[in-house]
Write a structure and sequence with these properties.
The structure is a single chain. By secondary structure, the protein is of the alpha/beta class. The chain has one domain: 4-Layer Sandwich (Metallo-beta-lactamase, Chain A). α6 packs antiparallel against α7. The chain contains seven helices and twelve strands. The termini are far apart. 39% of the residues are buried. The chain binds zinc ion. It is an enzyme of class 3 (hydrolase). It holds the Pfam family Lactamase_B.
């Protein structure tokens, strides 16, 4: 009987571990041209939540915009990129200090990848004694890597006090990360480090600076609906209408 119980336990453990590997994959979707969106999953208070991130394939190598939220995917992401494109990852930008964005700084830096953040992000990581980027960039910086040019821009406070977006003018791709909520989102999500009143102004800045995006990538959930930025503004407005003080 005891033996049977331990066999059953063994089978349960085995099927669970299979289940887990099935639940924590690394889906990579082609967006357009040299752009790919990848997703990782993280257990947040008992619920598996996905996080979107972006990478760009250039002649010089691959540029990551945000690290996987799931740290067990740090190396598999490099391996998948190598297998898919036969290229090395050469740069990583984190769009704010939270773990679903900047969590990979230490790992990727040790792999010889150049890591970047703005000073606001660096100040937070330093204060929280977390791994920091090797390079600190100004709040509005244009990079040319191989055949691609992109702008990394701090629009002001929003989801976080240090959130940045990336804009690819030629392809009209706006990578918003957590600054932008998915068109499916029912609320603004985690607001522990947010300034909702400023978020509204920051969204307006992004909308007037980066015109007619064709692709908009939010930090979580569906990214195929480009109403996401307008939807974020709507959620912000609703929130402010409900709490006129605006702060949190
Ligand atoms: Zn965040």
């Amino acid at each position: 009987m005891r033996k049977l119980a331990s066999i059953i336990l063994f089978l349960v453990l085995v099927s669970n571990s299979f289940g887990q590997s099935k639940n924590s994959p690394l889906p990579i979707s082609h967006l357009t041209g040299d752009f790919y969106v990848y997703k990782t999953f993280h257990d947040y208070k008992g619920t598996l939540i996905s996080a979107n991130a972006l990478y760009l394939v250039t002649d010089k190598g691959v540029v990551l915009f945000d690290a996987p939220w799931d740290e067990t995917q740090f190396q598999p992401l490099l391996d998948s990129i190598k297998a898919k494109h036969n290229k090395e990852v050469i740069m990583l930008f984190a769009t704010h200090s939270h773990d679903d964005r900047a969590g990979g700084f230490d790992f990727y830096r040790k792999k010889g990848i150049k890591t970047y953040s703005i000073k606001l992000t660096d100040d937070i990581l330093k204060k929280e004694k977390k791994p920091r980027a090797a390079f600190i960039i100004p709040n509005d910086t244009t990079f040319t890597v191989g055949q691609h040019t992109f702008e990394v821009y701090y629009p002001g406070k929003g989801h976080a006090s240090d959130n940045i977006v990336a804009w690819f003018a030629k392809e009209k791709v706006l990578y918003g990360a957590c600054f932008i909520k998915s068109a499916d989102a029912k609320d603004l999500g985690y607001l522990g480090d947010s300034d909702v009143k400023e978020w509204k102004k920051s969204i307006k800045k992004v909308q007037s600076k980066f015109k007619n995006p064709i692709y908009i990538i939010p930090g979580h959930d569906d990214w195929t609906n480009t109403e996401s930025l307008n939807h974020t503004l709507k959620l912000v407005d609703e929130y402010l209408a409900q709490k006129p003080s605006g702060k949190k």
